[in-house]
Amino acid sequence: MNNKIKATADAAPLYELFREFYEAYAGERARIDRCETIYRGDHWFDVPVDDPNEPRPVTPVIHSAIENVRADLDEYMPEAVITADSNAYTELAETLTQVIREDHLNCGYDEEYRLLTHDLLVCGYGVQEIGYDPDAAGGMGSAFIRRVDISSILFDPAVTDIQDGRAVFKFTRRTRDWFREHYPDEDELFTEDSLYMDTVSDGLITPRTDKNILLIECWQRKFDAKTGKYSVHMLRMAGGKILEDSRKSRPGGMYRHGKYPFVVTALFPRRGSALGYGLVDMFETSQRYSDKLDQVVLKNALLASHNKLLVTGASGFDADDLRDWSKEVHKGDNLNGVTWFQTAPLPAYIIQYIADMRDMIKEESGSNDWSRGMTNYGVTSGTAISALQEKSSKRARMAAKSLHSAFRKAVEQELELEREFALGLRCIKTFIDRSDPEGARKADAAAREIMNMDDMPMSIRVTVKVQKATGFSAIAHNDTVFRLVETGMITPEVGLELIVFEGKEQAKSLMKDRQTESGISN
Q1: pTM above 0.85, yes or no
Q2: Over 90: is that where the pLDDT of 392 sits?
Q3: Domain count of the chain?
Q4: Sign of the four-CA dihedral 66, 67, 71, 76
């Protein structure tokens, strides 16, 4: 069979599976669009217009609540620390911590984390991909963790754990010029017919006149009964055929760990699904009613600002004549036929109800006064304010726990990729960068140890700490360290290692340099 014909035949069942997943996600795509619309404050667009001049106010309560919780989550940005239960692997664990930290600097994980928190709070779940870039770290290669746009990825709708799914699909649009550059041998891919696929009718698949082609990345995980292990493969497809297939280039699997390289974090988990609900889902109705009541109040204010004049035919007054405010004298027969009509004001409880509804959204979402740094109720002590802020951010802490759990799983896969592809060289570089006198010996030993490993040692554990502790946590922690140093239970050097403050690494480096200079002068 011709290779190109075979590639098209092999792609057919994968495209069929893609159609199944995509159609099952139709409601989910509509929900994501609605959540983003509410977040932007553009939710009047789907309300029919009865009067083009009617007010359509938007008070961005949900937007403000989400951004305040996101600000709290920034304070909980995770950092991986590799520890070892056995002393034999202590140096290896320290080296792995340095390697992972460098990975996250290379891939800009701080920005990926902020995008992830947006997806988590607005749409209810975030997705992270763990992969390997052979060109990173100066050409040595480096693993990475990055956020995936949730509108461009499909998981098996029949499972609650994505690792149990039949496949994972990522998709995007690329121009024909992009395909010509990356796949110059696939000439027939650029024909007019290849731009069209009869998949679904909601706009994903481009029409024949479009210049874009849908690029699909399919991840499949298969179980080998003989070995009792899974292998995961990646295929790229476009124009109804397979363009890349890791089953040919890497028969044993794209990655040795045999897992889908994705981690899903759900804010409010859904029953029977791997996905979740977000803050918009919880408070959308309250936001809509709040804005609708604002519209009622504004309409009432507009009507009240234009008093009406009722004129009967028996009054003898001309309505147009009365409308002319430049005249001082108007002629008529009977003033009893002229009456001013004023719009009745709304009850006072309506205004209070609107305020209470908005306060409810802020309180229940975790965006209350204390979490936003407001000092109400006469509290002026900085320590007391920090403590109250710490206690008020329960919603953010719950979300942070979910993020940290997913981050730990992602780092575990990241370590496996580093061990598989480049960890030996990365360890050597880490020791050299430290300018450690024992670096050569440690690097050589660590590299040999890693290269001879079939699996990561069981005693190596991934723990997660917060990169930047909150003010209250740092104060309490540092106070404990100071007391331990004062009582002599620990040395000042150990205290410096344990204390938390900005510029700690720079301070340690300066102290080490001075000690070295002092040793040389002596």
Answers
A1: no
A2: no
A3: 3
A4: positive
